[in-house]
Design goal:
four-stranded antiparallel beta sheet; six-stranded mixed beta sheet; alpha/beta; 12 strands; 265 residues
Length: 265
C-alpha cells in the first residue's frame, strides 16, 4: 500500500514535467556545464515575469544548444502554488474544490517556473585576423549594392570579440593602391598566401551575391591561406529577392561562416 501511495505521489509531482533540446546549426559546443537561467511566469506562462533571456551576453560567440526544462522541483513549486489557492476553498466546499483544482488551478499553473540551459558555441583559442575581400556581384546585381553587402558583412563579423576584421582599405594602407588592385582580384592559392602573409591574416573571406529569379543566392567561403583549403563555407538561397533579405540573414550567415573557427597550425 505504501509503495502505491509513493508511486501516485511521484506521478503527481512530475505532472507537467518536460524537457526540450534544440541544437543550432553546426556550432561546436564549448566544454563545461551549460549556463542556466531560471524563468518565472504566471498563468501557464502567459505572463512572463523574467523577460527575454540575454543570449548575446551569456554566449557572445553564439549558442550551440538550447534546452528548456520544467523539472520535478519546478512541478512541485507549481503544485504548492496551486494548493495555496485551493486550500481556503477546500475548507468551504471540498467537493467543488477537488474537481476545480485538477481541472482549472493545476492546469492553469498560477506560478510556472522553468529552467533554460544554454550551451555556448566554442570559440577559437586566440583572436583570429580575418581579411574580407569585396563580394562579387552576380546575376545583374549592382556593384554598389554588393559593396554595401560587403560592408554589412564586415560589420556583423566585427561584433565577435574573437575576431580582428580587415578590409580592402587595410590592404591599401599596408601594400599601396596598385598592389591592392592586383592582389584583391586574385583567387589562386599562391596569390592568397601572399596577400595573407603581407597582412598577417589567419583567414580570407570571399564570395559572391547574385539574383536568380525572385531569390538572392549567397556564397561565402573562409580560407586558411597557409593550407589553401576552405575551413568553412556558406551557400544560401534567400527567397524574396529584396536587398533586405541579405541584411536580415547576416547573423545566420556569419554564424555559419564561423561555425568551425579552426586555429591555424
Amino acid at each position: 500500500m505504501r509503495s502505491r501511495v509513493l508511486a501516485v505521489a511521484a506521478l503527481a509531482l512530475c505532472t507537467g514535467c518536460y524537457r526540450m533540446t534544440f541544437k543550432l546549426g553546426k556550432a561546436i559546443p564549448e566544454a563545461g556545464a551549460p549556463r542556466e537561467v531560471q524563468r518565472h511566469a504566471l498563468v501557464s506562462g502567459l505572463v512572463d515575469l523574467s523577460g527575454p533571456v540575454a543570449v548575446d551576453d551569456l554566449c557572445p560567440r553564439g549558442v550551440a544548444v538550447v534546452q528548456t526544462e520544467e523539472s520535478a522541483a519546478d512541478s512541485l513549486a507549481q503544485n504548492l502554488s496551486a494548493s495555496l489557492i485551493a486550500v481556503p476553498g477546500f475548507l468551504v466546499n471540498p467537493f467543488v474544490v477537488v474537481g476545480g483544482y485538477w481541472v482549472l488551478v493545476r492546469h492553469l499553473q498560477p506560478w510556472a517556473p522553468s529552467t533554460v540551459r544554454l550551451t555556448c558555441a566554442r570559440g577559437p583559442a586566440r583572436t583570429l585576423k580575418l581579411l574580407v575581400i569585396r563580394l562579387e556581384p552576380r546575376g545583374g546585381l549592382e556593384p554598389d549594392t554588393v559593396r554595401l553587402f560587403t560592408d554589412a558583412l564586415v560589420g556583423e563579423l566585427r561584433r565577435s570579440p574573437d575576431l580582428t576584421v580587415m578590409t580592402g582599405a587595410d590592404v591599401e594602407a599596408v601594400l599601396g593602391a596598385e598592389r591592392q588592385k592586383q592582389l584583391l582580384g586574385c583567387t589562386d592559392s599562391t596569390c592568397l598566401t601572399e596577400l595573407a602573409g603581407a597582412l598577417g591574416a589567419d583567414r580570407i573571406v570571399h564570395g559572391s551575391v547574385g539574383r536568380v529569379g525572385g531569390s538572392l543566392v549567397v556564397n561565402l567561403t573562409s580560407i586558411d591561406p597557409k593550407s589553401g583549403r576552405a575551413v568553412a563555407s556558406v551557400s544560401e538561397r534567400l527567397k524574396g529577392g529584396g536587398d533586405e533579405a541579405f541584411l536580415d540573414a547576416l547573423p545566420s550567415l556569419s554564424f555559419q561562416l564561423l561555425a568551425e573557427p579552426l586555429v591555424p597550425q
